[in-house]
UniProtKB/TrEMBL annotation:
Its EC number is 2.5.1.18. The keyword Transport does not apply. One of its GO terms (molecular function) is glutathione transferase activity. Residues 105-240 form the GST C-terminal domain. Its main location: cytoplasm. The keyword Cytoplasm applies. Gene3D superfamilies: 1.20.1050.10, Glutaredoxin. It is found in: Cytoplasm, Cytosol. PANTHER family: GLUTATHIONE S-TRANSFERASE, GLUTATHIONE S-TRANSFERASE, GST, SUPERFAMILY, GST DOMAIN CONTAINING. This is Glutathione S-transferase. Is involved in the conjugation of reduced glutathione to a wide number of exogenous and endogenous hydrophobic electrophiles. PROSITE patterns: GST_CTER, GST_NTER. Belongs to the GST superfamily. Tau family.
Length: 241
């Protein structure tokens, strides 16, 4: 399936130091989108390969034989799977390319990793249930869990904001937690259309609502997250049959 829209070009497919990077993805996957955003933030060029998850390529099956999922980043022929692992790998492998996503202080790094895990566990898992559960009741319960997690994340952000006045979890710029949480933003609009529940609501979590606007306005983010709700819902149908 072709990408929904052309991805931003940040140069040739091979960067200045001769590294070759390929990203296996699916256009509407939050896990893939977060890797794309990080590659954009770092100004690293790469070849994007759209996968058909109903008919996975040999390259995907060979590159991620354990989970058989996207994203997979292939760096000079070596595959790396799991989006959070990939983002941290990009910091390690390209320390001089633009921004670093993780803070340098070990304690701050641990805090960022804690919240990134929390987001995928408490927001990402309910997201999956909302999409694929058969019963509406089950979807609504999952949405309530995601909303409660958003309130917890809002409280953590409020504390950070009070201490530092920072616009992002990463401080002045987008960091690890920002890309992990931010990659679900397009899907929150999809969920609202699907089940009529707003996961991110300015009335409940005003700081996160303002943060989301800042995040989506960033150059590295614009054009990456799926913005055509109906197109995402149509695409989703292919996995529900
Ligand atoms: N924990 C993984 C999740 C990746 C994931 O769930 N990818 C989905 C697309 S959104 C996938 O490839 N699904 C294919 C399958 O389950 O067969 C990550 O962070 O990379």
């Amino acid at each position: 399936m072709a990408s929904s829209k052309p991805k931003k070009e940040f140069g040739n497919m091979t960067d200045a130091s001769g590294d070759e990077l390929k990203l296996l993805g699916v256009w509407d996957s939050p896990y893939v989108n977060r890797v794309q955003i990080v590659l954009n933030l770092k100004g690293i060029s790469y070849e994007y390969i759209e996968e058909d998850l109903m008919n996975k390529s040999d390259l995907l099956l060979r590159s991620n034989p354990v989970h058989k999922k996207v994203p997979v980043l292939i760096h000079n022929g070596k595959p790396i799977a799991e989006s959070q692992v990939i983002v941290q790998y990009l910091d390690d492998a390209f320390p001089n390319a633009g921004v670093l996503l993780l803070p340098s202080d070990p304690f701050e790094r641990a805090v960022a990793r804690f919240w990134a895990v929390y987001v995928d566990d408490k927001v990402g898992s309910p997201w999956y249930t909302i999409l694929f559960a058969k019963e509406r009741e089950e979807k609504l319960e999952a949405a309530a869990r995601a909303i409660s997690a958003m309130e917890t994340i809002e409280a953590a952000f409020r504390e950070k904001n009070a201490a530092e006045g920072a616009p992002f979890f990463g401080g002045d710029g987008i960091g690890f937690v920002d890309v992990v949480l931010g990659s679900y933003l397009g899907w929150f609009r999809v969920i609202e259309k699907m089940i009529g529940v707003r996961i991110l609501d300015a009335a409940r979590t005003p700081l996160l609502a303002a943060w989301a606007e800042r995040f989506e306005a960033a150059d590295a983010v614009r054009g990456v997250l799926p913005d055509d709700v109906d197109k995402v819902i149509d695409f989703l149908q292919t996995f529900l049959h």
